[in-house]
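This section describes the prediction task in plain terms. A model, or a person checking by hand, is given the sequence of a single protein chain and must write out its three-dimensional structure as a string of tokens. No templates, partner chains or ligands are provided. The sample shown here is typical of the held-out split.
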Amino acid sequence: MRVSSMFARPFELVYRWRKKPAAAIPLWPAAVGYLSRRYRYLFCTTDELRHIPRFDGTIIVDDDDPSFTAEHLALLNYPNVAVVVTPTELLRQRLLKEGLRKPCLVIPSGVDFSSLDPTRVASIRRRLKDDETRLVVGFALPRIYTNEDLGAEAGEKALRSISFLCGAMEMVWEEMPDVELWLMGRPSRSVRSYAKAHSQVKLLGYVRHSDVLDYFTNFDIAVYPRLMDVGGRHSIKLLESMACGIPVVSTDVSESFLVQESGAGLISSGVEDFAGNILRLAKDATLRERLGQKGREFAKPFNWDVLAERYRREVLDVFAP
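The expected answer:
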């Protein structure tokens, strides 16, 4: 869930059931029907839309990752859906264009500033930075692939491929061979092979979300090398980088509107431009500091403490009083 768990507490039992072994999962639809007789409201995320028809009361949908399929829109337009909340105006406009007939509000995703721990930041720096003078380019995904992993059905693997980033970094290394590339996330076999062949690459593996900001703060430059445009979703990784005061180099995709609006980084039109922008930041500490400060200021209103109150006031108090 992208909003504070306080909104889902009436359904905590149901979410716990989902953590049971696979044999217990068929009970989940029945549980939704049972709860619809005990509760008046359901808070539903994108991943749980299939349960909308089983709940009789008022439904609030937090649709942070819409697929825009006919089935998706039909569920959003279900009679007892009271409101749809999405994180960007770009997504709201497309949902309406595709046929959404329900009230649709925009409340962005946020950053948990309270998770940033200076002690952990320093500990990570001591453990991972062998040489303080070496600049770190950082990137994070839950799972990381290269184009070698792509089959006929690329899907999420194509979205998470770092082959473009690797090509850009090889151009960077030709001029500045000591720049390091830190990759957060579970690497595929091809990613591990690439790291073995390039001593500048450090694989950090899976990092708990509560620790992400502590790692990001140790980056000198954050990168967003996405090639597939997914329609203006609200990139948490971009926002978290900005919250840590880290300048960003991004491709020119819809999600990079955060970089453009904040002035917190450089937008790139291709792999050579991407590499050039990394080099530009790597060579100019003053520029890194200036762009990082812009990002830090831009991110302040996206503190979850602020957004949770907004969610309560604009959504819950109105549609689930």
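For orientation: Residues 1-27 have pLDDT under 50 and may be disordered.
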